[in-house]
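Would you mind writing out the residues of a protein together with its fold in token form for me to study?
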Amino acid sequence: MNEFIQYLTDQIGQPYLWGGQHTELTRENYVEIIHKREDGRGKYADGTTYAEASIAYCKKLFDQGATKLFAYDCSGLGMYWIADLKHIWKDRTADQMMHGCTELIKSEPPEKGLWVFRQNERGKATHIGYMIDDTYLIEAKGRKFGVVKTKWREKDWSIWGIPSIFEDEIRNPEPEPDPPTP
């Protein structure tokens, strides 16, 4: 679980891309890739298309000196590590990841290792975030924000769950070592 959390932390600042799962973007290819994934997906209230917002986010990073970016959507952020690097599960959506939890919880605040979900009116998970401690989570928030670390707020999430791949570590955490005696 700690390795997964470190991986998530290393992705902070990377861009959001619909269907992105460590999708490599360079100065030469990012506009074309974004248009293929984002054209026709929608617009923000200010009239900016999702593609335009994603392109602007990536352009800013390239203008700041980035030479290569890796883009994710919310489930792709976690699934790259789970499926591609660790070969634990095959590709899954946020909703499938919710159903991959051994227990779903609503009454207690989430803790380190839990996954948090936003659901639609039918109960389908439409977004996922990953708790990295008892206060903060990492999520691929959206085209204007990329991958971010944010403070958990109950009003932003519908339900949270214990992912089956980390159940033992969550239910039976290793005790923190005692501090050295002076």
Q: What stands out?
A: The chain is about 30% helix and 25% strand. Residues 50-63 form the longest helix (14 residues). The first strand starts at residue 21 and ends at 25.
